[in-house]
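ESCALATION

Customer reports they have been waiting on this structure for their group meeting. Please prioritize. Original submission:
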Amino acid sequence: MTKQENLQRLLSPRSIVFIGGSNLALPIQNTQDIGFDGEIWVVNPKYDEIAGVPCFDSIADLPGTPDAAFVSINAKLTVQAVADLSKRGCGGVVCYAAGFAEVGNNGDELQDSLIEAAGDMALVGPNCYGLLNFTNGVALWPDRLCGERTDKGVAIISQSGNVALNLTMHDRSLSITHVISVGNQAVLGVGDYIEPLLEDDRVTAIGFYIEGLKDIETFSRAALKALEKGVPLVVLKAGTSEIGTQLTMSHTSSLAGSDDMYQAMFDRLGILRVHSLSELLETLKIASLCELPKGDRIGVLTCSGGDSAMLADSLDHYKLQLPSLSKIQEQKLGKWLPDFASLSNPLDYNTSIWGNLEACTEVFGIMMEGDCDATVLALDFPKQGIGNDHEWQVAINSLIAAHANHPKTCAVISNLSELMPENARQRLVKAGIAPLQSLKDGVAALARLVRYGERRRQVAAMDDSEQLLLRGPLLMEGESKMLDEWASKQLVGRYGLQLPGGRCVNKADVVEAADEVGYPVVMKGVSDRLAHKTEAGAVMLNLKDGSAVASAVEVMAGRLAEQGLADARFLIEPMISDFVGELIIGLKRDEQFGLALIVGTGGILVNLLNDSAIMLLPITREAAGAAVLSLKGSALLRGFRGRPEGDLEAVVDAIMAVADFAMDHWDSVTELDINPLMVRPKGKGAVAADALVRLKQ
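Update from on-call: job pushed to the front of the queue and completed.
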C-alpha cells in the first residue's frame, strides 16, 4: 500500500496496538472511553496486562496485522519497533518519543533511521502527541481526553502537541472531528494530512498551527483542492519574529521561511490567516457553520448605540460595507419601531421591542431581506446566575426564526467572549448561525469568510487553476557567479524584457559607440566584479557629445583601475528622461519556496520606502497587475497630480518576462535585480535601465 492509503488506515483503524510501559494506561483508557469498537492489543514483555488489556511479548506475537500503532518508548527502541511494525504490514504509527531531529547532532541520524524503518507506513511524529478521530472513536493520545464523538466538525493539525491539547479544551461550541499533532514531520508533512481529511465529508474546515512547512509543493496542491471543494483552511503561523523563528527551528526542526512568502502563499491559495488561538477557533466556527456570503455587504442589528458604533468601526476596519436601508425596509420597520428610532444600518432597534418575540422576529427579518449578504446581531448575555435571561433568549429565538425565512450568512457577536452562554451557543449552532465570541475576533472571522468567498469565486473563474500550484525548491550545487550588466540584460532580454538599446565596448571605442547610439547618453562601467556601480563612481549621466564622453571615460577608467578593475568595459546607452516612475523587479531564492518574484518602488527610493509586493511563482498577468497596483508608489504611474499615466501594460510585460526567465532557470538562478525599471508614458514601454543576475555555475 502507498503511504496515503496507509494514512487512511491510521486515521480510521479497525485494530490498534499500543507499545510501551505503564504510561500506556491513559491512552488505552482514552481509546476505550471514546468508544473505539475495534481490536485493541498491547505489546510489553514485562507486564501481563495494562489497563485491563492482556500484553503480548512482541509485535511478531500479535494475532493480526494492526492498522494503527501508538509507540511510547525511548527514541532508539522506537526505531526498532517501527521497523518491526513495517515488516508486519501495519498501516501507520504514532511515534510519541522525542530525541530526534529537533535536538540536532545524533538526533538527525536517528530520525533518518526512523524514516528508513517506516518504509511505506504512515508515520506521525516523532516528538508529537498523536491523533484523535472523534468521528470513528480513535484516541492515539497520551494525555487527558477532552472532546466527544461527533458526526461533523473541523479538523485540527498542529506542529505543537501542547497547542493541540489546549485546543481540544476550548469552550467555544465548536465540534472537532480530528486532531493531529504532527511533531517533526519525519515522514508525513502537514500537507499530506489534508487530502485524506478532504475525502471525509464530515470535515467542514481544517485549522492549523504551523511553524514551518517542509514540502511547499505538496501543501499547495492539497490547499488548492481544499479551495476548490470549499473546505476552508485556517492557519495560525508562528515564527514571524527573529526570536520566534529561532524557537521554531529548535522546537520541531522546522525551517521557518520568510513570513512574507508564507503570506503570499496564503493569499494565493485562499488560506485564511489568523494571529491568535481565539481567532483560529472563531474563524473555524463561522467557516464550518455558515454558507459563504455572496459579497461584503453586512446588515447589523443591535440594541445599543454603543454596540452600533463599535460594530460599524470594526466592520469598516476590514472594509466591509454597510448598505443603506431601502425605502421599503424603512416603511416596514416604521410599523414596528417607535418614531424616535433611527432607521439605519446598523439598526439600533432599542428596548421598545425588547423581549417581544413577534416584533423582534419581524424586525430581524426585514433587515435580512435587504441588500446585504450577511447579518450580524450584537448581543451580550448577562452573567449566568444573576437573574434570568428570558429577554436575551427571545432575541435568539427571533433571530433563529428570521434566519429560517431568510437563510443568508448569519452570526451573533458578543462584545465579551464570556458573555455568550453555552446553551445559547448550542441553539445557534443547531440553526446554522455562528455564535462568535468577542467583537474583535468575531468581526475578523466574518471578514475572513467574506474574503474567502471572493477568492473562491476568482479561482472558479480561472481557465486553469493549476497555475496556482507552487514548485518546490531544487537543491543546487556549485558556486554562485554574478553576470555583468551587459550579460545580465542580454540573458533576460531574450524573454521579452525591454532594453535601452546600447553597446558594450572597450575604452578605445567608447566615443564611436556613443555617436552610434545618439546623444545624450549614459556611460557605465561593466564587470562581473562590479555590483554597485554608483558607489564605485561607474555611472555618468546625460553626456551630450563626444567630447563629454571622452573626458568621462578617462575619469571612470581611472576610478575603476584604482579598484582593481582595469579590465572593465564600458556600456553606452541612450539617456531616458521621459519616465514617469521607477520600479524594481527582483528574484529571491528561498530554501522552502524556491524563487519568489518581488516588485516594488525602485530607483533611489527602494530602500527608503520599502514598498514592495512578493509573488510566488508561477504567476498570471492578473496577479502581476494586481501586485503593481498594490504598491504605494503606483500612484505615480496612474497620472498622479496631472502627470502622464505610465505604461502599466508594459510593466506587466516586464514582470512576466522575469517570471518566464525564472521558471526556465529554476535550478540555477540565485538572484536577479532589475533596478530601476523606468516606466515611460502610456504606449512608450518600460525599460530595464540596470540589471544584475547571479547563476549557479
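Sent to customer with the following note: Residues 245-257 have pLDDT under 50 and may be disordered.
Escalation resolved.
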